[in-house]
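Lab meeting, item 3. Inverse folding demo.
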């Protein structure tokens, strides 16, 4: 077995791993970067996550509502091809950026620990043993597939990454799971012309959101033609593909052209053999880390989805900053100091949120003020012919600080960053109330929202 020694060994070519590899290489360190899948250079987001899905969402937004399904089939196939070209381009740019550095070696193979700082990389033609003074794990997450009879045998059942790579648009699509991923895909395929049904096991739609926001989202999606079955218990999957489920003590059989399993993602640790390195896992299979992202093994860190935290590429990037700060002695940033993490859901009317919602604030016993504004009252929303939605802000009545904001409206994914910055700066809500914004823009709605 061939042996090689490095200053740093990074497992996984995701956002955190590739960013850290570049920084280490620029600092003169010899770096090994391991990726088991050549189709994953750059990580989940670029290849099978947010970038390809948003490419399809953008293409879907260009589809006219009155288009015939047969014409939508052509549009969808073109959109998938455009998505592929985009991901290939980004993947190559990510690979070339690191491969061009003389002190970075990229290994295409499956990595597993065989000792505290020793890794075996199983490649197509050989197996090599790598030793690193420091090791960094950035293996991301994989789709969680629930235990349902027939789910691994029936044809036409897909994960999100598999569904996005189909050339044929399903006429009927059934989605198992009513979370954010499921809703994005429901909205996406509905806009392309698919008849979409969402099956959720829990009784409450988006239980982590305030009820008024959740019901507004559900109403918008139902107006798109999406059907929901809540509090439904899936019994099995049979050929069709057909989902057999129980709802209100009645057994239903729902046949479709494709079934999407959108029941979340889990840390990707199965192949790592972490115990050989003394790296402990949590009860959920994530790598256990402290607030500096150090594992239970000396000189081994973990970043991104594999640590079991919020699954966003920008969190993986921030994780790389935390680790690099330690290695370069330039900062003391930790996960404990990371606040106000925003997120966006790219449904037809985008939803974005940062901070506490009304229920959470009241449960915490805080004295609050609640501000609401219908999106229809925003001039830019009328210009965009997108008046659906609701803006809602939660303010601490004792301090005037913004506790949280929920933006269900066009371009919310841009506006949310303004509010996050104000919260990070500990600004009073009046700063946004009195801010001078350009016109007409969606962000100027913050003037009216905070006029309470």
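The presenter then showed the designed sequence:
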């Amino acid at each position: 077995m061939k042996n090689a020694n490095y200053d740093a060994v990074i497992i996984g070519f995701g956002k955190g791993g590739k960013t850290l590899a570049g920084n280490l290489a620029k600092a003169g360190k010899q770096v090994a970067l391991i990726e088991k899948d050549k189709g994953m250079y750059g990580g989940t987001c670029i290849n099978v996550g947010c970038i390809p899905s948003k490419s399809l969402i953008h293409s879907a937004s260009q589809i006219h509502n009155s288009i015939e399904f047969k014409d939508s089939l052509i549009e969808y196939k073109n959109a998938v091809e455009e998505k592929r070209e985009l991901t290939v381009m980004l993947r190559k740019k990510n690979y070339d950026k690191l491969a061009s550095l003389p002190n970075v070696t990229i290994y295409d193979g499956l990595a597993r620990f065989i000792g505290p700082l020793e890794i075996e990389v199983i490649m197509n033609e050989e197996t090599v043993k790598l030793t690193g003074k420091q090791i960094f794990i950035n293996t991301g997450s994989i789709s969680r597939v629930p235990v349902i009879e027939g789910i691994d045998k029936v044809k036409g059942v897909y994960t999100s990454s598999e569904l996005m790579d189909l050339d044929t648009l399903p006429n009927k699509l059934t989605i198992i799971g009513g979370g954010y991923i499921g809703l994005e895909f429901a909205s996406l395929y509905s806009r392309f012309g698919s008849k979409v049904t969402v099956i959720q096991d829990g009784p409450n739609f988006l239980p982590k959101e305030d009820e008024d926001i959740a019901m507004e989202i559900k109403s918008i999606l139902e107006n798109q033609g999406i059907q929901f079955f809540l509090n439904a218990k899936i019994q099995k999957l049979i050929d069709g593909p057909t989902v057999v489920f129980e709802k209100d003590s009645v057994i239903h059989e729902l046949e479709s052209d494709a079934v999407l399993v959108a029941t979340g993602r889990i840390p990707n640790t199965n192949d790592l053999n972490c115990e050989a390195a003394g790296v402990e896992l949590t009860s959920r299979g994530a790598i256990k880390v402290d607030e500096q992202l150090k594992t239970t093994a000396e000189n081994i860190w973990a970043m991104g989805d594999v640590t079991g935290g919020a699954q966003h590429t920008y969190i993986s990037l921030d994780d790389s900053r935390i680790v690099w700060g330690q290695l370069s002695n330039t900062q003391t940033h930790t996960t404990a100091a990371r606040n106000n993490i925003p997120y966006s859901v790219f449904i037809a009317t985008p939803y974005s949120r940062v901070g506490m919602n009304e229920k959470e604030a009241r449960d915490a016993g805080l004295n609050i003020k609640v501000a609401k504004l219908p999106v229809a009252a925003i001039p830019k929303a009328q210009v965009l012919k997108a008046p659906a939605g609701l803006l809602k802000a939660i303010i601490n009545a004792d301090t005037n600080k913004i506790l949280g904001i929920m933006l269900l409206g066009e371009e919310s994914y841009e506006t949310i960053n303004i509010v996050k910055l104000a919260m990070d700066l500990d600004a009073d809500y009046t700063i946004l109330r009195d801010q001078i914004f350009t016109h007409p823009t969606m962000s100027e709605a913050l003037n009216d929202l905070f006029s309470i």
